[in-house]
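Standup notes, structure subgroup. Blocker cleared on the iron/sulfur cluster input:
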Amino acid sequence: MDDLRKRAKELLETSAVKVVIGYEQGTANKTRALFVEKAEDADCLIFDSRCVQNLATYVTKREVKDKGKMAITATLPVMRSIIQLASEFQVNDNNLLVLGITPESKLVEFKNLSEVETFVHQYQIEIDAKNKEMLDKIAKMTQAERWKFWIDELSPCFKCYACRAACPMCYCHRCTVDFNQPQWIPVPSHELGNLEWHIMRAIHLTGRCIDCDACYNACPLAIPINLLTKRMLEDVKINFGSYQPSIKADHLMSTYKPDDKENFIQ
Amino acid sequence: MTDNLYMPYLMRIERVTYEAPGVKTFMLRFVNDDDQEKFNFKAGQFGEYSVFGVGESTFCIASSPTRKSFIECTFRQTGKVTNALSGCEEGSIIGFRGPFGNTFPIDGWKGKSLLFIAGGIALPPMRCVIWNALDLRENFKDITIIYGARTVKDLVYKYELQEWERRKDVQLITTVDPGGESPDWKGEIGFVPTIVEKIAPSSKDTIAIVCGPPVMIKYTFPILSSLGFTDENIFTTLENRMKCGFGKCGRCNVGKVYVCKDGPVFTLSQLKNLPDEY
Amino acid sequence: MNIDKRLVRKDSLEKLFDILKQNSKTIYAPFSKNSKVSFREADSFSGITTDYIQTTQSSKEVAFPRNEKILNYSKDKEGMKVKGIDLNDIPEVVLWGVRPCDTMGIGELSAIFNWDYKDEIYNNRLSRVTVFGFSCSKSDDYCFCTSVGGNPGNTQGSDILFTQLGENGDYLAEILTDKGSSIVSISSALFEKTENIEKEKFLAEVPARFEREEIRGKLEKFFDSQLWVEQSLKCIGCGACAYVCPTCACFDIQDEAHGKSGSRVRCWDSCGFSTFTLHTSGHNPREVQSQRWRQRIMHKFLIMPDRLSVYGCTGCGRCSRACPVDMNILEHLISIQEVSL
Ligand SMILES: Cc1cc2nc3c(=O)[nH]c(=O)nc-3n(C[C@H](O)[C@H](O)[C@H](O)COP(=O)(O)OP(=O)(O)OC[C@H]3O[C@@H](n4cnc5c(N)ncnc54)[C@H](O)[C@@H]3O)c2cc1C
Ligand code: SF4
Ligand code: SF4
Ligand code: SF4
Ligand code: SF4
Ligand code: FES
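Run returned:
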C-alpha cells in the first residue's frame, strides 16, 4: 500500500494531521493498530485483507484524540462507523480526516465527512450468508430451544467487556453496566447478569450497529454475540426499512442532544 | 473451620446523629457479646460497613479505642452504599468487617505536643486520635485542633466541638471558607492552610496530623514545613478505592504500597516516596 | 529427591478417568467450544481435547471461581441471619490437562490469597484439587515460560506430571506429591513401574527471551516513563488479559438481593477497567489507559516480587493471545529490557 504510506507521510510532514491511525504487522499472522506520529514511521503502515479490526474505536479514545487532528485508514465498515459517530457528535471535519479504502482496496481521500457519507451510501449493509443462515436457524427454533441456545452461548461470558471496548459505538465513559444507582445490570457474570448485559447491549446498538463484527472478533471466547445485533439489524429492516448511518438523519432508538442533562455520553 | 475473612460482625445501630447535610454518625454495638469481648482496634484503622443486599463501604473508625463497648463511624452520603446506610434507622442491623490497616503511632508520641489539622468531613479519622489522646491527656503536652469546613452548616461533631472549646487543656480553632460564615459565627474565616499560616503553631516537639480534601492537604504541607515540622513528624491518611481491606482485591495500591495494609496512615516522608497514584 | 516415575499407557488414560469418577472426583478438563479451548467439568472422557498449545482461559477457576458466593443473609421476624458458605460443600476435584505454566501459576495466585490474611475459601478449594499437569510438546510465538522461571516440563505445582513420549505415545507420569500418590494407590495397575525415561527430548523448545530480574530493576525507575503511553495507545481497556491470566487475582465484592434474602458475591475484576480505581467523587488515581497498563506490568514484575517474593507471570502467553488488539506482553517486556536508562 504505497499510496497510503505516501499520503500518510505528506499529511504528517505538512502537519495537516498529528496522527495517522492505520495497521501494522502484528504477532504471528495478525495485524494490529498503529498510530503514526512521525513521517518516517509511515513505512510501517500496511493494508491487506487481514486488516479487519475496526479502527474507528480509537477516534473516541482520549489519549488518541488528545494528540490533535487524526487521519484514519478506513475500510467501508470503519467509514460507516465514522458517519454514525459524526451523527452522534463524536467526530467532525475539524478533528478527523478519512483515508478511505474501497472494497477494491483502492485509496480514496475525502475532503470532508459528507463526502464519506455519499461514498458509504453506495453500499447497503448486508449480513453475510453464513450468519444469515444462522439467524434463520435460530428464528425457526422453538422458544425453549432458543432459550437453551442463548443460555449455552452466553453462559461462558466472563464479562471482560472486550466486545464493548472494541465497538466504536460503545464509547460512553460510563456504560450502563457501570451504573450502580440504580444497579440496572447485575455485576456478576452469572446467567442473569450475562443475559441482561447482552440484551442491553444489543438494544443500545439497534439502529447504530453497522455490522462490522468487531465485538465478535474481540471476544476471547468467540461467543457469537454479533448474532444479537444482526437480529436487530434484520428486525429494523423489516419494520423500518434498511439502516444506513447518516450524519443528519434521526436515530431509530435514541436521540442525541449536545446539551443533554445526562453527561455519560459527551 | 477457620475464619471466613469476608464474614462481617453484625452490628446494631444504637444511635444516629445528624452531623451536617448528608453526613451522619452511627454508634454501633455488636449484636453478639462475644464479638464485642474479642474486638480491639487502634486509632487510624478502618472497616468495611455493609448494608446486606446493597454492599460494603469503607470508613475509618471514628470513635476512640479507649472507649470500649461500641464503635462509631461518620459518613457522607455519596453513592450506593452510603445512601442505603443513610436510610437505616436506629435498631437496624448492619455488617462490619475490620479493623484493617495500620495505626497512628500514638504510643511513640508520649511527651509531645499534638497539632490536629482537619478539613471538611475528614475530621472523623482524626476524632479517633483526638479522643484517644484526650483520654490519655497526661501523656501529651499541648493539644491544638484546627478544623475548617466550607460553611458553618458543614462542620461535623458540633457537640464535641463545643466540649473541646470549653476544655482548658485543648486549643480549638474553627474556621469556615470565606462566604461560608453565618451572622453569629465567632470562629475564623479563611481556608485551612491560610489559618494555619496565620496561627503559626510551634513545631517544637510537636506532631502534626493532617486530614482533609487533597487541595487542603497539598497547600498545608508546605506551610508546616516552613514552620519547621519535619516530614517524619507530619502524618496524614490516604483514601484509595477499596473492596477487601486486606491486600487481595488489588485496587488500592499506590505503586508498591497497599493503602489497606500499609496505610491508611502515612508520614509526609513516606508520602514523598510514593508515586503519583492516589 | 528421587521422583517416583511410572509409565501410563495411552489407552490407560480413559481407565484412569473412569476410576476417578468412581471415586467421586469431579474432573475439570479442556474442552473445545467455538474453536476455543477451556476447562470445564468432564462427564465423560471422550470429549476431552488434547489438541491445544494452551487453553484460552487458565484453570484458576477451580480455586477462584469468577463469581463466588462468600456469604448468604436473610432477614426475618427474628432478625438478621448471616451464614458463610459451607466449606464442606466444596467438591474433590481433579484438574486434568493443565500445562506447566498454569501449574506454576497456582503458587503465584496462592501468594496473593495468603498475603498475611489467609483466604480460607480459596485455600479450601485449592486443598481439594489434585493437579494433573501435562507437559508441552508444542509451543507458539506467544509462549515464554523459560524467561520467567518455568519450562515446558516444569513439575512445579503438579501433583502428577504427565509427559507424552512422542506423538501418540504413552505417558511418563511423575508422581510429585502425596495427593499424586493417593491417585496412584487407587489405580496402581495403570501406573506401571518403569526404567528411567528421559522426558527432555519430548518437550517443546522455548527459547529464553529476557531476564526478569533486569526488567524488575528497570521498573524501579520507570514509573513516569513515556513508554507506558507508547505501548498502550492501542490498548482498549478491557478485562480479557486479566481474566485469562492464571495469576490475576483482582476481584470486586457485590451484594445481590432477592427479596428479604440474598448473598454477597466475590467476582473477578481487572486493573484494565477505567472504573477499577474510580472514587465516588469522580477522582481517579489511574485516569488513562497508560496508567492501567503500567499497573499490569508493574504488579507482575515489580510489586509482586517485592511484596510477595514471587513474580506474577508464568509466560503462558494467554493475555497476548486473548487480547483483542494484539497487545503482546512478550514484545513489551523485551522493549522494557532494551530501554537504556
Ligand atoms: C481508608 C478509608 C477511610 C474512609 N473513611 C471514610 C469516612 O470515615 N467517612 C466517609 O464518609 N467516607 C470515608 N471514606 C470514603 C468512602 O469509602 C466512600 O465515600 C464510599 O465507599 C462510597 O461508597 P458508596 O457505595 O456510597 O458509593 P458508590 O459510588 O456507589 O461506590 C462504589 C464503590 O466504590 C468504592 N469507592 C468509591 N469511592 C471510594 C473512596 N473514596 N474510597 C474508597 N472506596 C471508594 C466503594 O468500594 C464502593 O463499593 C474512606 C475511604 C477509605 C479508603
Ligand atoms: S468479549 Fe466475550 S466474554 Fe468478554 S464480555 Fe463480550 S461476550 Fe463476554
Ligand atoms: S501475564 Fe500473560 S503471559 Fe503472564 S501469566 Fe498472565 S496471561 Fe500468562
Ligand atoms: S492488578 Fe491487574 S495485573 Fe495485577 S492481579 Fe490485578 S488485574 Fe492482574
Ligand atoms: S492489553 Fe488487550 S486484553 Fe488487556 S486491557 Fe488492553 S486491550 Fe484488553
Ligand atoms: S482494599 Fe483490597 S487490596 Fe487494598
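Discussed briefly. Chain A touches chain B at residues 180-181, 183 (CB under 8 Å).
Next: hand off to the docking folks.
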